[in-house]
Design goal:
Helices cover 42% and strands 17% of the residues. The protein is an alpha/beta fold. It has a seven-stranded mixed β-sheet, with helices on both faces. Helix 1 packs across helix 2 and helix 7 packs across helix 8.
């Protein structure tokens, strides 16, 4: 099924990206990991058959780690500014703004911290929207890593869902069901908030930018 794959992303600027991880590894190292994850994610979207690549972005790419690479990757996508006072509003608006650019297409939205989500998984998520009006990919921490909607206007329910909590995934599922949507389930993934997450995810994608960034960080830590 053709559709939009929407990446909701924050420019990986030191001090602003991956702040929980930065408490352990430092601001710049955390931003480097975030940049690698975002580049791998955009590459996966660009390689997904039938996908229109869209990035809803906040922050200044020119101030980010790997800014030249990011700018080149984003040039191949439709880039939209994020709008909203909180994460729920920004997610809902990102779906609506994508739908305004690509009328009639379903939208599958992911973040920038699951670089193990490869093209086959993304294509499968789009295809699943042929069978169900919504699909949700749970995250290991109780949130979710991916949300697909055949009718992107249904993302309005996200405005009332508390984000970044251990019950965000369940609350999102209930909100979607509450407006009458049947929700298909996608495989669970771990996102990257802490160093053990990064090590686990890197092992799943050997040869990726993210794995290389984690290996470099681990090597630096081992030599201190």
């Amino acid at each position: 099924m053709n559709g939009c794959v929407l990446v909701v992303a924050k420019a990986p600027v030191p001090g602003l990206a991956k702040t929980r991880l930065a408490r352990v590894v430092g601001d710049r190292a955390a931003a480097r990991l975030a940049a690698a994850a975002l580049l791998d994610t955009v590459d996966a979207v660009l390689a997904t058959p039938g996908a229109e690549p869209v990035v809803a972005l906040t922050g200044r790419v020119e101030s980010a780690e790997r800014s030249d690479e990011l700018a080149a990757a984003l040039d191949r996508c439709t880039v939209l500014p994020q709008r909203g006072a909180d994460l729920g509003e920004r997610l809902a608006n990102a779906h609506l703004d994508t739908a305004a650019e690509f009328a009639g297409l379903p939208v599958f939205q992911i973040g920038m911290d699951t670089p193990q989500a490869r093209p086959a998984l993304l294509a499968g998520a789009l295809a699943a929207l042929s069978d169900a009006p919504a699909v949700l990919g749970p995250a290991a921490d109780g949130g979710w890593w991916g949300l697909g909607l055949r009718s992107p206007v249904r993302a309005e329910v996200l405005r009332a869902v508390p984000m970044s909590r251990g019950d965000t995934g369940m609350r999102t599922l209930l909100a979607l069901r509450g407006v009458g949507l049947r929700v298909g389930r996608l495989p669970a993934l771990s996102d990257v908030d802490f160093m053990p997450d990064a090590l686990r995810v890197a092992a799943m994608v050997p040869g990726s930018r993210f794995a290389a960034a984690v290996a470099e960080l681990s090597l630096v830590g081992a030599t201190r």
